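hey so i finally got around to running the thing on that chain from the lab meeting. sorry it took forever, my laptop kept dying and i had to restart like 3 times. anyway pasting the input first so we r on the same page abt which one it is
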Amino acid sequence: MGLLGKLFFPDKEEEEYVVTKFGRYSDNNKTKEQLDQWKEAKKLFVDKKYLDALELFFKYLKDNNIDNVSFKRDGDNATFEVYQGSKKIDGSINDVSFKASVPIAQMTKRTIPVLRKLLEKNYSLYYSKFYMEDDKLCLHIYNDLRAATPEKLYYALKETALNADRLDDILVDDFETLKAVGTGHIEENSEAIRQVKYDFFKYWVDKTLAKIEALNPDTFAGGIAYMLLNLVYKMDYLLLPEGKLTEKMEEINAVFWNNLKDMPAVERNNRMYNKLKELSAWDEEEVKKYFYKTKHTFSITKPTGFKNVISTIQETMKNVQWFQENGHFDISLEMLEYAFAYSQFSFSLPKPATELFDVVMQVNHNDYYKAMGHEEQLYDRATKKFNNDDIIEKIEDITEKNKKRYPHLVINAKAINFASLQAFNQSILSELVKLDLRRK
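ok and heres what got predicted. didnt touch it at all, straight out
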């Protein structure tokens, strides 16, 4: 247990803290076997072996590490389940049709604003539609089996899953006439884990806002923007928020990127600052209710060419020089973390890149990792000492585990600089831009 964890829970036994994996779910992690199943599914569909094709399609979707998809075949019929965050899609297949449905919310009273909102939403959907079943609002897919190609079903299920997962909490929070439904599969975190997450949430937000308040908003406009954005990306990665808490953090991110050209930097920063101030004022239980365990099948972000990750890192490395030369090391550390955190938040990255980012985060936030059940002490801020051997072992393990899929992958662990936290972060970033992620 880390320092903050011990302060918050001095009497708790170590066994209550389970090792947690962090970061948004990425479906950019398919094995060679799954990719072969995808190709074979398309061939079988062309040969009109529809159910055989879809059985392979669902094997392609399934992540065996989290058991997020089930498919049960009975002769010429089949049923399936697909998990995405707080929602579970149920579906059936017979010799003529493919059907899928997911409940969004229960209406205790029919109101025009709710129905209008969902009717407007229907116009933006390509494959699925909102409909009412008794008193439940649902999202529904219906396809003639002969038109249900693997490509079409992938995008149809993804559209349905992402919209259902995003909208259920938001609608229930926004409309008093709606109640949560279809959430029986959700597994809650223990109160101890939720408390750790909340306390770090408050610690990170309040500490960052206090730093910003002490800075000249004009002179440090660029650094403040980096600090605000990195706070959002850091919390998204480490806290794994769901529902409305995720939505609010994405709104803060959007303030910057949607107004990049049309709004002065100081005003953008002020708007982001105020939104974070509002978030910090949320009631403790309101924040904690969005820390629950989930399974995902689809990534909410899209893959990107690794050159985009490299350009972000290189641009940030240029900008960080002034802050380092002028002794603003707190800001430069935030910027170095941002250099990779932006891409982790915005895109679905290849597995070795995400795993290397996790090493960076564990070194920079070791207290949080220990409070969440990770035993390794990779870096001690009090003594400023690194656990060089464990860090190098982790980096070498990333190379070894991913060699089969990325045969050209080389991460030079010996190039990592352990002179300081600044030096460590910069040396990791320098190695990141050299990654050769060509697939076999």
